[in-house]
Amino acid sequence: MKKRKGMLLFISLLCLTACGSEGNLETQRDGQETLGELEAVFGEFTMEDLIELSADEDWAEQMEEEGIGFFLKYENFSAVEDHPQSTWFHEAFLSYGERTYRLEVEHIWPENAKESFPMDNAIRSVNLQEMETGHTMTIYWQDDEIHEKPDVLSFLAAEYNGIDHYLKFDLPEGITMGDYVLSDSLWHDGNYFYSEAKSHNDQVDDYFCNAGGIGVLDENLVENLVYEDGKLVDVFHPSNHGGRVTDWETIENEDFSVVMAEYNYDRYVASDELEYEEKYGVELVVSEKTCDYWYVFLGNEGEAQNYMAYFHKNAFTKEQVVELVKSIRKVEE
User: Fold this and answer.
1) Which residue in 128, 6, 105, 103 sits closest to 60, CA to CA?
2) Is the pLDDT of residue 35 over 50?
3) Of 27-36, 48-57, 141-150, 189-198, where does the model show the most confidence?
4) How many Cβ atoms are within 10 Å of 142's Cβ, its own excluded?
């Protein structure tokens, strides 16, 4: 779910080198980028600056004209050491209330500039991320034909609630519920499940191949729930490297219409699989290369708020999943 937010400041980029803005960013052959003679000439860029920036009609044009120099004139932007091969990232950390945010700016290396990036230091994207939850909004994206003014204030006002804010249910013995997470996959408010049963190796992300999780379904996916006669019968659930392998089953629940199906996912892309085998001196068998889950969707036709849960087969039996789902109730407001 991409939310656009923006930036702006009524200060023109100062050209600090005798040769002008071109050449201020130099790419060395070893992949390390230096800033040449471009220096910060202002103090810290603050969240208040970003809010003011986002109210300006010409914020996108300013970034297009000035490139990365739009931000590097502030002293609190620094290069990110771990970066992809074709782009470079700079970041600044901004405070607002009791929260900390990361403002990330991605720009193009001079040697990778294409016709679509007329400047060597063209900005490709700008993102604002709340550090504790990972909640991210896209402020600027180079490929957009029309840049809407970003609603930074609405993003800053977001509330983050664990699933117990919405639902209550009974967990089987041996399963615990982790702290709140804001997932970038299918939900926006939720929690992971944890089990003593090891469901993945230490090289796999927490979301992928863990014991499971439950959360509020992303509002952009609500239209993917298909109802017939008021009953949930199908879900369009786009997936990479795997997906649904059985038909939908119905689970009875007092508060929701519920469907469940088995899913299978690859744990690794081919290159990651080879890297893991070489690193640990092992040869993975088929059962170690995939994750098997039960996926459950809960909803009511016409309601905006719906839910998704997934349960790793190494941590849950099917009977446990069914009993847990039957126990789910809405939290009374």
Assistant:
1) 6
2) no
3) 48-57
4) 18
Q: Which class for 60: exposed (0-12), middle (13-18), buried (19 or more C-beta within 10 A)?
A: buried
| Contact status, residue 110 vs residue 122, Cβ threshold 8 Å | no
Q: How far apart are CA 221 and CA 20, in angstroms?
A: 48
DSSP line for 112-165: G--TT--STT-EEEEEEEETTT--EEEEEETT-SS-PPP-HHHHHT-----GGG
pLDDT digits (tens, 9 = 90+) for 202-254: 444 444 557 889 999 988 788 899 999 999 999 998 777 778 999 999 999 99
User: Is residue 310 within 8 Å of residue 213, measured between CB atoms?
Assistant: yes
C-alpha of 47 from chain center: 21
Count each helix (H run) and each strand (E run) in the chain, helices first.
7, 19
Residue 152 pLDDT > 90, yes or no? yes
Q: Are 296 and 262 in contact (CB under 8 A)?
A: no
- The least confident of 108-112, 116-120, 327-331 is 116-120
SS3 annotation, 183-244: CCCCEEEEEEEEECCCCCCCCCCCCCCCCEEEEEECHHHHHHEEEECCEEEEECCCCCCEEE
Residue 101 confidence (pLDDT) above 90:
yes
Residue type, 3: K
CA 240, distance to chain mean position in Å, is 15
Burial of 329 (0-12, 13-18, 19+ CB in 10 A): middle
Q: Which helix (H) or strand (E) holds 325?
A: helix 318-327
The residues, ordered by sequence, that sit 6+ positions from 228 with a Cβ below 8 Å of its Cβ are none
Taking the C-alpha atoms of residue 123 and residue 109, their distance in angstroms, rounded to an integer, is: 10
Q: What residues have CB less than 8 Å from 211, skipping those under 6 apart?
A: 175, 192, 193, 194, 195, 197, 199, 311, 312, 314, 315, 316
